[in-house]
Amino acid sequence: MTALIATIKKELLLLLRDIHGLLLLFVMPVAFILIMSLALQSQFAQNAGGQKIAVLVDDQARSDSAASVIKLLEQRDVFSWHVTDTLSAPEKIRHDEAAFLLTLQQNNNDLHAEILVAPATNPQIEAIFTAVVGEAMSKQRIEALLRNIKMKRALDSDFSLDDGIDEDALNSNPVTIQYSYQKNQTTSVQPASAQPTSVQQSVPAWLVFAMFFSVVPLANTLISERQQGTLRRLRTLPVPLALPVIGKLVPYFVINQIQVLLMLTVGVYLMPLFGADSLTLGHSLAGLLLMSVCLSIAALGYGILIAVVARTTDQATTLGGVGNILLAALGGIMVPRFVMPDSMQQIAGFSPMAWGLEGFLDIFLRSGGVKDVLPEAGSLFLFGAVTIALALVLFRRNT
């Protein structure tokens, strides 16, 4: 019994000495619950007046039929309808500022609807929206047909019902779907046969997460060298003080690039073997290289800063692991940003993982090039440079 009490006392003392790790055991689950709950609240509140799905409506028909369809659609409270006639509407869809662009066009007496789907739109939401538009178009057609029959009957007493129905027009599909992303093609708007896949969403997301997770081994090795006196012995040599830090970043940078090659290879060649679609890499190798390099710099800057701040390997593992999970939850890795309310999407924009994910999606889904990913790549590079510089300052002060 004495030995048991002494063991318990020893463990309590160790916990109390590592106050940062102890606090994170309580702070982490609270923060995680808050983030996940806020991020997903719109999905559960849609039927109760919560976050609505944004839809842009371009009424090019300017007819009574189009007005009737819009009136029917506006009765669907799940969607937020925004009438627009600007040329920038397709670009807004391309950047996921709205889930759909609905264009109404008049061809002779027939009204036609064209749906442009944003890259990050959920397939289930797409199916619901397509059904809603199809229902409204069908109602409008039936109402127009009935009005036409009544008018012909009023003018012609010998009018036959068979003479007033155009079966081909009635049975034709008044709705077509296009997608604002690329799939092994050069155009940004694709036919209905090309649909976004889970592979195109998952591979870049978990690639970003994997690169940031290098924080754990990077931090543990630096802390072990500090505890074993290796860094103290290095200071006796005529070498720059920053050399141990920089020397660690180079091999991990190479590891990050291997991670990129491995994950992309899995997406392109391995996933089809399991019945999934192949990953589309886009058409900009330079943009892909730029994102890979800048993302690695950001991940290593975050990792080396954690390594310098943490005093024990337990602290490094907790700070690095929990920090990665929180950044992933905020950055759209675990919870897609398109399901978050506007306030959470704005907060998500501060996560470096969100910058990395959006940059890769610009290339994989949106036919982006170097110019398109410059904002994300620049933010990642700046984040990495600042964190590495801060880590060097703290490293000099601590050693």
Number of domains: 2
Sheet with the most strands, sense and barrel status: 5 strands, mixed
- Specify the overall morphology: elongated
Helix percentage: 55-70%
The average pLDDT is 75
Describe how the helices and strands are arranged.
Elements: H1 2-17, H2 19-45, E1 53-59, H3 64-73, E2 79-83, H4 89-94, E3 100-107, E4 110-117, H5 123-155, H6 167-171, E5 175-179, H7 198-212, H8 215-227, H9 230-235, H10 243-270, H11 285-309, H12 313-330, H13 342-348, H14 352-364, H15 370-398
Parallel strand pairs: 1-2, 1-3, 4-5
Antiparallel strand pairs: 3-4
Helix pairs in contact: 2-12, 3-5, 7-10, 7-14, 8-11, 8-12, 10-11, 11-14, 11-15, 14-15
Written account of the structure:
The structure is a single chain. The chain is α/β, with parallel strands linked by helices. It folds into two domains: 19-42 and 197-398, no CATH class; 52-179, abc type-2 transporter like fold (3-Layer(aba) Sandwich). Helices cover 63% and strands 8% of the residues. The protein contains 15 helices and five strands. The protein has helices spanning 2-17, 19-45, 64-73, 89-94, 123-155, 167-171, 198-212, 215-227, 230-235, 243-270, 285-309, 313-330, 342-348, 352-364, 370-398; strands at residues 53-59, 79-83, 100-107, 110-117, 175-179. The chain has a five-stranded mixed sheet. α3 links the parallel β1 and β2. α14 (352-364) packs antiparallel against α15 (370-398). The protein is elongated, with a radius of gyration of 28 Å. The relative contact order is 0.11.
